[in-house]
Amino acid sequence: MYFFYFIFLVVACIAITYLFKPKNEENKNEKPEKKESNAEYQKLNRSYLIVYSLVVTGDWLQGPYNYSLYQSYGLSLEKIGWLSVCGFLSSLVLGTYVGSIADKFGRKKMCLIFCLLYGTSCLLRYVPDFYILLFGRVLSGISTSLLFSCFEAWLINEHNSKGFANSLLSNTLTWAAFLNGLTAIISGLIGNVVVSYFSYAAPYGVAVIFFAISAVYIQLNWNENYGDTSAEGDKKEKKEDKKEEKKSSALIKGISVIFKDFTILSVGLIQSFFEAAMYIFVFLYSPILEEAHKLSGHDDELPFGLIFAGFMVCIMIGSRIFNILTQNNWKVITISLPVFLLGTLSMLLPIITMNEHILYWAFALFETCCGMFFPTLGCIKSEIIPEEVRSSVMNLFRVPMNAIVVIVLLKISSLSQEIQFIICAILCALSFILSANIHSKENAKAKAATTEKKDN
């Protein structure tokens, strides 16, 4: 059954990708400047996506084998649980600070530091000592914060500095989400092969290779960029900014920016709530599908590798749907509304029914929403976050998410499945309410602008 579901999703993904290809305009009549600009964009697009694919492959290689590796070292369930919590706590506390210095230190440098830290974290998994493994989880928590802030901040700065259109940025972010799903499937296959030949630690060794290749490519092909503090304002304002920089850290400036602008605060909360639901969902789908499978009278084991691969194809489908909608001139904030609404509904279904097929397709719908969410939020963040504190703000956006996940993980044994899914549904619903508020404000601004034009 799950094999046919997977085949259906793959066919659907291929059909959507090729039937709704963007129409390439004829290049023959293009001006030389446009051709040159397009060549520059393609170079940036290719450079970013190569690195992004390599680093997320290294990231995905680790996930499926954490529990099995720790168990093979004879660690108790309690210690394994603390290792998981430690990763999120590290991202919450240390990752937020380390990621925030990228704006001054340099985004390229921080991406290289990410490769070093994550590679070291993977190598430490070969040591069967609890405290060494704990330190490895601290490093991986910091690395995760850098992965989801510095790389995107580097891309947006390069994109804006070269004057490329916003539609081209959404195209890059769409392909990044698509490749995220594809590399997850490839990583699963690589992981299965190396574990069968070596040990549960083998995928971490392979991940180190991917991070090393990424570091070399970044060093050779990426420019350095920083928070742009020179764009606007006169000389007096610049002098004041320099004085402020000495007094306050990038982190404090980032906090100030978030709380001064309600839209930026709302987007931060939207990201935190939805991503928290996403991370909590990872711990929920396996046990509830197993329970539903047994309730339907089956004794065989579920093919979780195939189920996971199917969900990753859904992320790829979601990224292509986002691309189709943007091609049809949907505003990015408008796209976010069905994403969060459908995400909420998909998290409510496990509370209503235990039908195995309904649950699978509800979860597939949620993963499709995740595939639309990544490029949607990336585009929104690129428009509203000031360049000079981009990395700081993007790291601060992850603070509530890490806090929510840590609290839920610490209490997960005392919470029923229904309560856990209700928490996920509430988080998605809050994201919907906040995005609906931003959408209504944007519509009000647009109406006011058109009224002004008519009056003039």
From TrEMBL:
It is a multi-pass membrane protein. Its main location: membrane. One of its GO terms (molecular function) is molybdate ion transmembrane transporter activity. GO terms for biological process: monoatomic ion transport. Keywords: Cell membrane, Ion transport, Membrane, Transmembrane, Transmembrane helix, Transport. It is found in: Cell membrane. InterPro entries: MFS_trans_sf, MOT2/MFSD5. CDD domains: MFS_MFSD5_like. The chain crosses the membrane at residues 6-22, 80-98, 110-128, 134-156, 168-191, 197-218, 262-284, 304-325, 332-352, 358-380, 392-413, 419-438. PANTHER family: MOLYBDATE-ANION TRANSPORTER, SAM (S-ADENOSYL METHIONINE) TRANSPORTER. This is Molybdate-anion transporter. It comes from Neocallimastix californiae. The lineage of its organism: Eukaryota, Fungi, Fungi incertae sedis, Chytridiomycota, Chytridiomycota incertae sedis.
